[in-house]
Amino acid sequence: MNLTKNTKLVGVICVTITSICYGLVPSFSFIAFGMGVETATLLFNKFLYAAIIMWAYLLIRKVDFRLSRRGAITMMVTCAGYIGMSTSLYVSFDYISGSLATIISFTFPAMIVAIEMITKMEPVRFAKILAVILSFGGLVLIVWDPDMHANLLGILFAFGSAIGYVIYIFGLSAKAIKQVDSFAVAGYVMVSAAAVNFIRCLISGKPLFATEPNQIGMMILLSVVCVFMAILFYAIGVRLIGPGNAALVNTMEPVLACIFGHFLVGDVLTHIMLIGSALVVAAVLITNLPERKLRE
Fold it and tell me: pTM of the entire structure?
């Protein structure tokens, strides 16, 4: 992929903005929890407002969002993966810090590589095996850090978030979904996530909407910054520098989540946790390196 210097710079800036947006999710969510917002309420509001913005964008731009029969079935599986990922991640917030949960969930690239090699979708390469080992080795260091008193249930939910992300990514890579506009896919995902959390609120008896002005402001901030802007800038970045380069730049997300968590909500960062985090990030970097560089 031949890129001009300006195109690459703009693409990197766009994906960096996405990493910042996603990196803020744990901290903004914990701030909202501190305001008294329930998890189910937060998720419903976050995805509802984001869905309204996204579908307004789709209708104004007259984007074709029609699905084939096969596309609709694949879309349901894709949406299920995303809902499982986001729900598990937020449930893990009830037990462990947001930065720790984000680091654990970022084992998903190594999971994808492992599945691709096992199913022979991709050839077995030393670099990819190394990525899997580094990722899970980093996870072990984080989880068994003697200075961390992480709840096992929270760790399992964060790990479940990674599994949900794997399902979501494989869904997005399916041929039936690739034929659909990326923003339309995002619109369907947001609507389905809002619908599931609407039902969660009804079943659990949690309020549907945040009512205090500061709560509403935080819901809008999460929707606009952490959902709509994140998806929009990532899509622009991918078009400018390609998916491989975009994924490589997005490696900053768990690092930024740790930094924001430390300064905004006081998350604890131990030395062993930092080493484990570095191993996870290294695994993601290796996973996303172009094949040409992996062979060098």
Answer: 0.82
According to the model, what pLDDT value does residue 48 have? 96
**Nearest CA to 178 among 68, 90, 85?**
68
DSSP for 225-265, written as a single string: IIIIIHHHHHHHHHHHHHHHHHHHHTTHHHHHHHHHHHHHS
Residue 200 burial by Cβ neighbours in a 10 Å radius (0-12, 13-18, 19+): middle
Q: What SS3 state is found at 101? A: helix
The per-type count for the chain, helices as H runs and strands as E runs, is 15, 0
Nearest residue to 112 (alpha-carbon basis) of 88, 90, 98, 131: 131
Domain containing residue 198: 6-295
Q: Would you state the structure tokens that stand for residue 103, as one six-digit string?
A: 């680091």
**Please, what is the angle between helix 5-23 and helix 230-249, to 10°?**
110
Spacing of C-alpha 25 from chain mean position: 9
> How far is residue 139's CA from residue 276's CA, in Å, rounded to a whole number?
6
Q: How many CB atoms lie within 10 A of CB 175?
A: 9
Using CA atoms, how far apart are residues 45 and 215, in angstroms rounded to an integer? 10
* Structural domain total, the chain: 1
Cβ atoms of 131 and 286 within 8 Å: the answer is yes
In a domain, 1, yes or no: no
d(C-alpha 284, C-alpha 289), whole Å: 9
- Tens-place pLDDT, residues 52-110: 999 999 999 999 999 999 999 999 999 999 999 999 999 999 888 887 888 888 787 77
- Measured CA to CA, the distance from residue 290 to residue 295 in angstroms comes to 9
The string of pLDDT tens digits covering residues 175-188 is: 888 888 888 988 99
